[in-house]
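Example with several molecule types.
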Amino acid sequence: MIKMRTRIKELRARYELTQDELADIVNVSRRTMLYLEKGKYNPSLFLAYKVAKSLHSTIEEVFIIEDDGTSSPDGDALNLE
Amino acid sequence: MIKMRTRIKELRARYELTQDELADIVNVSRRTMLYLEKGKYNPSLFLAYKVAKSLHSTIEEVFIIEDDGTSSPDGDALNLE
DNA sequence: GACTAATGTAATATATTTATCACATAATAT
DNA sequence: ATATTATGTGATAAATATATTACATTAGTC
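Resulting structure tokens for the full complex:
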């Protein structure tokens, strides 16, 4: 099963940004930011780009797509395949 | 104006893949692949990831988001802002 | 020229992201 | 304990990526 996790929370903490503040910077609703952070959906490339840039990172540093080897869904993370 | 261009065509040529073949590899319709290649829309992060991996590249190598400094639309490239 | 493969376009339908708004819980401070 | 701020959830609506199908055009070959 392929899943996505993000380092948004960690990076937000580093820059002392609240979800709301980051959402504003990126021009997105707080809910979208929240769901993004929890890996609950598969954002558009441009949104991912803006989030990464706002956190002084690259897309691949912030959004981590991985195959965990299992075949059963795990929690409420986004199921990509 | 922020726009996106891609190096898909160039990389496809390097690996001698047709749009159709790459679309199959990535599990997407040929039309989606075509529009993606021309930067006509803003793919999901996971799709961008799969395309990049299929072309042995990173997302940031394949999808190039840039601000060209102008304020008027140019051609039919995707207008991201 | 005709033939074929590859690329491009158009119309419509479906799926999923994203917005909006309202409320619930957690954490922290006073 | 009560404010206050941050985080989380639910329902519904809007926007847009993507699928599907069929046809048009270009490039290359015979």
